[in-house]
Amino acid sequence: MPLDPHDRSPVVVAVASDDAHRFSKVVREEITLVEGWGVDGDAHAGPTVMHRYDRRKEPERPNLRQVHLLHAELLDEVADDGYRVTPGAMGENVTTLGVDLLALPTGTLLELGEDAVVEVTGLRNPCKQIDALGVGLMGRMVSRRADGSLVRKAGVMAVVRRGGVVRAGDEIRVRLPDGEHRPLAPV
């Protein structure tokens, strides 16, 4: 039975990881987040950038993409257009429900489950590999605002501020940063 955001607090729908650099990740019963590192055993974990393209350019750059979070509402939206995209397929580590991830300001803390805390660092920049899940799907991951600016819908990236185990069904608590809020930009 699907989770309804009107029936409960924001929640983790699924967790996923993969020890190899593949586009999609394997849904797991649980993942362990490690402070300053990312998802234990995941190919994108580490203190410096692990994304293959970025690593070739700047291998010592801090890893602002330790954890990828994607809102399940996006999966429902593309399903309405005939795309069958399941949790983990877009490469996300945490699939959420009931949190408007794209509207969060930079520096927002997300408490996942009992112990884990991640800090949102920016937007995931969608790539052409998304079309491997369905021709034209990449085009659904971006849109334009009335002013012509680009909207990226493929989730957000975060770093682990406090480690812990995260499972499907865990509650998500949102803590907005103090001071002036900065909108998310691609990382």
Automatic annotation (TrEMBL):
SUPFAM superfamilies found in the cross-reference section: PK beta-barrel domain-like (SSF50800)
Coiled coil regions in record: none
An MF annotation (GO) of this entry: catalytic activity
PROSITE patterns: MOSC
Transmembrane region(s): none
InterPro entries the UniProt entry points to: MoCF_Sase_C (IPR005302), MOSC_domain (IPR052716), Pyrv_Knase-like_insert_dom_sf (IPR011037)
Domain MOSC as annotated: residue spans: 25-175
Domain of life per record: Bacteria
Annotated protein name in UniProt: Molybdenum cofactor biosysynthesis protein
Organism: Actinotalea ferrariae CF5-4
